[in-house]
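A quick aside before the break. I want you to see a complete sequence-to-structure record at least once, exactly as it would be stored in a machine-readable document. Don't worry about memorizing anything.
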Amino acid sequence: MTAIAVLGNGRVGGNLAAALTRAGHDVTVADRTPGAAAGAAGRAQVVINATPGAGSLDRLTALREPLRDKVLLDVSNATVDGPDGLPAALLHPGSSLAEQLHRALPGTRVVKSLNTMLYPVMTAPTSLAQPPTAFLSGEDAGAKHIVAGLLTDLGWPAGWITDLGGIETARATEAAVLFVPHVIRSSGFAPFAVSIARATDA
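That is the input. The structure line, written in tokens, reads:
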């Protein structure tokens, strides 16, 4: 059992918190009450950033000390939204939210994952007609191993998890959010995810 703090109690955070609780973890969801995020982060082993990406850097930088030595699983995408509320551009072009967090929180073990899908897929990957892919980006191999274990608890088979390498690889996965508005306009708000199709074994 892992002590987990979820920052953000919207659809993403609530979905992850419920699934990880069902998996047997000790989960605390931090609301916007003053001090709630710092208290939850301070007691946790793993902290999940499910706050709106545009404000995540400021919110988490303010938690530098509670986040020290913690694994920070960042599932958010930092975007500039269009008039319809859907992502229109990246807030950190040439970088990524994950890289900004890694730089701002040098004592924290930042891992990017689960940001290339609509939120229902995060906890129900086998619900799609084709296997989705969960990517891992980060500098700390041990932290990525811990996150991979949590993904397994959420129902992700090991073969559907791909370690892309260092934190800079989060630029690619965060850029995938720009697909989202076009797919939604084309096909509606149905669960989908980025998937890497590989050749079958000979």
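Two observations worth writing down. The longest helix spans residues 141-153. The chain has a mean pLDDT of 94. We'll return to this after the break.
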